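Person: Please comment on this record:
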Amino acid sequence: MSDRGVADKAHMAELPAAPNLLDLLGKLEKNEKPPITQLVQAKNETPKPEKSKPEPQAKPEAALKPEVKNPDERPPVGQKALVPGALTAPAIEIPAQLKIKPELNPSDWRPPVQLSAEDLSKSALKLVKTDANDARIQAEERAAGQGLVKLLSGPERVQADLLRMKLSVSSEGPEREALQSELQTFLKNKLGEKASAQGVNELTKPYSTTELLAEIQNARKEEIPELLNETRKALEKDAALAISDADKLKDFSEKLKTFESRAAARPLSDSEVFGTYVQMARVLNPSLRLAHGDKGNLVRSMLANAADPFSIDQGGHNTCNVTAMQVRLYAQEPQTPSKVVADIAVTGQFKTADGTIIKPLSLAPDGEAQQDPVWDGGRNFASQIFQMVAINTYWNRRDTMPGGKNVGKGNIQYAQGDDGEYLLDVSVNPPLKQ
């Protein structure tokens, strides 16, 4: 029986007696369908209640003066309460759903504070001032750090920036602390009392590689040729640790020369080549452990793409459109696709210009990408990662699957596996294959 049916029956029970109508109601509850004439007849036979004034009754003296210690005192929670002014009335049991929890005292209730428009404006202004103050402090710290950089001689700036570059790719812990200590000592030895605490603290922060690279490329372009030379040396040194096969290590060194020859012929700027090497250095960082695949294989495929963009292939995958874009990027600005691959290798995700976070699922090298070197017409490891990011950059911004199902932005993933290529709805667990 529905709640409404219960309420209707309770209401009818309070009316004057009408046995025939109540009997019919009972039949309706039992799904018995009485003739409509019986319902009409029952309705017509229902006696109307006579209006009469209740006779005044004398109230007992005790009822007029109830014996209570405190007029405001409430009965304990869960106990029977007496109706005020009628001690002779039967006790009423307080329903469980109406009982007041001990920790919630109605007498302590206060209406919520209503903020005026002026108060809201003051709060918003306070937040704005706080943000502005934080920005001012950050600008002062940046200025202090750049002030120290300007005090260094050219070779000293290069050495400081190389230490900062190592710091930017370092892992949190003893490695980072050792580099920070080395940089602090270097700055104090070179600048003495001019090395302000604020400036030293700023320069020893673990900047992101992207921030530091932009700072150097925009503010200290004159350093880039020497930084490029030093970064190349560091690449070959770290490659020797990551690539155990002598022939593959030799091939890596030869492809560095091929890339530099192509850069000179195009031409690509020293800044572009330096930026590309910095991204490869992130992958070759000795403290980095790839979650998927071999680091030596990945960095060799990154360099192969930069050295000869027209060797890039989609392999046996339906990724022709993004492969064409990848070829163009590696030909004209190789540091851009190199950063995409390095971000995935180091952090497992890539952040687009509009703030969308891309986290591809298919990061482990497939059958083609595991080949080192990859066969002619095959897709190498770096190309697999770039193409997965590029396609998911499109789908992660969408909220509707093909066919019209809305799953919410960020819940559509393009994936590849042994059973083919497909879209996944990751708003559910396990993901649903499209």
